[in-house]
Design brief:
- The complex is a heterodimer of chains A (233) and B (530).
- Chain A has 233 residues and is of the alpha+beta class.
- Chain A has two domains: 151 residues, no CATH class; 50 residues, no CATH class.
- Chain A contains four helices and 13 strands.
- Chain B has two domains: 293 residues, no CATH class; 103 residues, Ferric Hydroxamate Uptake Protein, Chain A, domain 1.
- Chain B contains four helices and 37 strands.
- The longest helix of chain B has 19 residues.
- The chains are: A alpha+beta (233), B mainly beta (530).
- Chains A and B meet through strand 1 of A and strand 18, strand 19 and strand 30 of B.
């Protein structure tokens, strides 16, 4: 046994050395798509929130071909409808080319995950837009998280300008397109036929759903759709 | 202990080897060799290299075939300049430990066979990589046909020949020379197996070294450009080993490629080199002398004449299918241009300095102390970038501004200008100017230590054997391959039609496929055309 152990050690060492000689620096993923974009130029500072998330949040982007890049620091610019990521190698804020993306998602500090997808908006000011998907499915509930630079009272901003959120909500299906919605009970119920309105009201009442804000509206939307009450769309 | 050692040293198992078959064993120079490959199930590569090698192992030509469903098929054009003798067709991948070789005889059609009446054949441990399967039947083949006679036969496949996972079986009818059978054998790889698999395409790899010391260069930037209407582009930043890798997906046929490397800090001059594909070691083989029989000489003589006549009548051997459309990016890697200018539409301007001054907004091209300088205006900040922009000439990044200095408006088709700092991965470009010349000429950037140009043989296009629909009787039908169906769906009964050519002699019907247990099965039947 005493003779065997050194022999075995020598044998193992010789095998390990052959493995080490053959090793190369293996690249991570040759297939990974490169992010294309332009440097973000900061805009004028006014009161209000031009960004949806104040700080960069961890998230992922999905390219048109379906490939994804995870663990990116992302920030959605509501003013210009852009997604910005922080490039560690260059220490730069980069606007990712909108046309290169299918969508993106990030998780805020409070743990809420926001999922966006790029879609062509065919209404007034038709263009490619990032819509937040509030509820998926055949008919999805989307929100265009827009912010605008508006005039305001000089007591709010000395320059008389501030950033104001002007979120727009839509029901969307690929066949029918966009149907504008307001975050009110009456707006939601008006999208159903008379008999279905009664059903929807009953379901909301039974589940004690109040539509006072966005969360209430999403809860009401999901509840009605889960009860298979057809939307008049 | 022996078992452990064996596994560490990686002696290949039978199921780890490729099976390679050619349509015939004897060819004339200038002909097309058709081949079929069955890949082992565990093969990690998505492509297989097929090399035509001389008896001494020198690579003559090669093809890259895509492996689909553990199989691949393609062709190799045999150069006209080859001298008569034994050659090898071999497989190699980045990951397989064994090369599969097939011996073939090629006769030069411009020179007679040697007067010595002798030729060398390798002495190898011939391997039968296929096995006959009794349940497989070929029905309806006559023992004798007349020239230009239509034939029909049925292949009855037993259940074991129809595994759900296998994509196809191959059916071949070709001339055969019964006294010469090309030998199949295996050779162990003499280079280490690559840790990087090429499952999705071709991998180009190489090394960047310091020009003076020849040490591997760390943090070298390597650009790969593929000139096109929307140019392909990728980059790699080298590690401490100086190596770089590029994956080329979905490229078929010949692809022009430019690879260049540089030190981003501009401190070092570098030299770039591409790794040669792994060679198949056959130099250890010994050869024995054999004599030609009278029949062999006669057949080869007839074969070479047939090939020459076929060329005179311009009869192709294979029909190459259209390349699957490579879907380009919707826009160039440098982004959508801020401005595109077409200088041809304006008055003639003699050089690029004048073009930039008169036509290109936000572009400054000047010569100070005989040194040209190019700058782009940053539209967001309304000042010029301090660094030179990315300059592309016909899709190829160039650093030497003297290449565009003399380009007047007549020589430029269009100029795209990006007046913002663009990013591609971790690379940043302080503005982009992309010039497309009137006559795209990829030879402008000169080959140097830092720049390599190559016309890459990418994945071979799908081919089918040429079968004439109706030939007039005054035009000879000189096909030696009457049927070549390399990937038929294995169904219970396969009905096959063929038509004999004007070439009389012995023909062999061969059916090959891969059974459910991974073994290669075959069935052969002979007939004569008289």
């Amino acid at each position: 046994m005493i003779i065997r152990i050194p022999t075995l050690i020598a044998l193992i060492l010789s095998l390990v050395s052959t493995v080490l000689v053959a090793q190369e620096e293996v690249p991570n993923n040759l297939n990974s798509e490169k992010i294309k974009g332009a440097r973000f130029t900061p805009f004028a500072s006014y009161p209000g929130k031009p960004f949806l998330n104040d700080k960069f949040a961890s998230g992922e982007i999905e390219f048109n071909d379906g490939s994804k890049i995870e663990n990116l620091k992302l920030r959605y610019n509501s003013l210009r409808d852009e997604i910005i990521y922080f490039n560690n190698a260059n220490s730069s804020h980069i606007i990712i080319d909108k046309i290169s993306l299918k969508g993106f998602s990030f998780t805020q500090e409070d743990g809420i995950k926001r999922v966006f997808r790029r879609q062509y908006y065919d209404g007034y000011l038709h263009e490619e837009r990032f819509f937040e998907v509030l509820s998926g499915g055949r008919i999805s509930l989307l929100c265009y998280r827009k912010a605008d630079l508006e005039t305001c009272d000089t007591s709010i901003s000395k320059s008389g300008l501030n950033y104001e959120s002007s979120f727009k909500y839509y029901a969307y299906s690929p066949e029918k397109g966009y149907l504008p919605l307001k975050l009110t009970r009456s707006s939601l119920l008006s999208k159903f036929s008379k008999p279905n309105q009664k059903l929807a009201k009953r379901v909301l009442r039974k589940n004690k759903i109040q539509i006072a804000d966005e969360a209430g509206f999403i809860a009401a939307w999901n509840l009605i759709l889960s009860n298979k009450i057809p939307i008049d769309f | 202990m022996i078992l452990v050692l064996t596994s560490f040293n990686g002696f290949p198992q039978i199921s780890e080897k490729f099976a390679l078959f050619t349509d015939r064993d004897v060819y004339a120079s200038g002909e097309t060799l058709l081949l079929k490959v069955f890949a082992p199930e565990a093969e990690q590569s998505g492509v297989v290299n097929i090399d035509l090698l001389s008896g001494k192992g020198m690579r003559i030509t090669h093809a890259i075939l895509k492996i689909t469903g553990d199989q691949a098929d393609g062709f190799i054009y045999i150069p006209d300049s080859l001298s008569s003798g034994c050659y090898f067709v071999g497989t190699s991948t980045r990951t397989n430990k064994t090369h599969t070789l097939k011996e073939i005889y090629i006769a030069n059609r411009f020179a007679d066979l040697p007067e010595s009446n002798a030729f060398s054949r390798p002495v190898v441990d011939q391997q039968r990589i296929e096995k006959p399967i009794p349940g497989l039947r070929i029905q309806g083949i006559e023992s004798r046909y007349k020239p230009r006679e239509k034939g029909h036969f049925t292949i009855a496949l037993p259940d074991e020949c129809r595994p759900a996972s296998t994509e196809g079986i191959s059916v071949t009818i070709a001339t055969t020379l019964q006294e010469y059978n090309g030998q199949n054998f295996f050779v162990n790889r003499n280079s280490p197996v690559s840790p990087i698999t090429d499952k999705e395409g071709i991998i180009l790899e190489g090394v960047v070294r310091e020009l003076q010391s020849d040490h591997p260069f760390k943090n070298g930037v390597v650009y790969l450009s593929i000139p096109d209407s929307i140019p392909g582009f990728n980059y790699y930043i080298t590690g401490s080993d100086g190596r770089f890798y590029f994956l080329l997906k979905d490229y078929h046929g010949k692809v022009p490629i430019v690879i260049q490397a540089f030190d981003k800090a501009e401190r070092q001059l570098v030299r770039i080199s591409l790794n040669e594909p792994a060679t198949i070691p056959v130099d250890f083989l010994t050869f024995e002398t054999r004599n030609f029989s009278t029949e062999f000489r006669r057949c080869i003589s007839q074969n070479t004449s047939n090939v020459t006549f076929r060329k005179i009548f311009n009869q192709p051997e294979v029909t190459i299918q259209m390349a699957p459309l490579h879907k380009p990016d919707p826009y160039p890697f440098y982004g959508v241009a801020t401005t595109t200018v077409f200088p041809k539409l304006f008055t003639d301007l003699p050089d690029f300095s004048e073009v930039s001054r008169e036509l290109l907004p936000g572009v400054k091209f000047r010569t100070y102390n005989r040194i040209p300088v190019l700058l782009v205006n940053n539209s967001a900040q309304q000042n010029f970038f301090l660094q030179p922009p990315l300059l592309l000439l016909d899709g190829i990044p160039i650093h030497d501004l003297n290449l565009i200095k003399s380009m007047g408006s007549k020589e430029i088709d269009n100029v795209e200008i990006c007046q913002s700092e663009r990013f591609f991965g971790d690379l940043s470009f302080p503005g982009v100017i992309a010039i497309r010349s009137s006559k795209p000429d990829y030879s402008r950037p000169a080959v140097s230590d830092e720049l390599i140009k190559l016309n890459l043989d990418a994945i071979q296009l799908q081919t089918t054997s040429y079968t004439p629909s109706e030939l007039p009787f005054n035009e000879p039908d000189l096909r030696q391959v009457l049927l070549w169906k390399p990937s038929l769906k294995p169904e219970g009964k396969l009905e096959m039609d063929f038509q004999t050519s004007d070439i009389c002699g012995h023909y062999k019907v061969v059916i090959r496929g891969k059974s459910a247990n991974g073994e290669i099965y075959c069935k052969e039947q002979f007939f004569e055309v008289k």
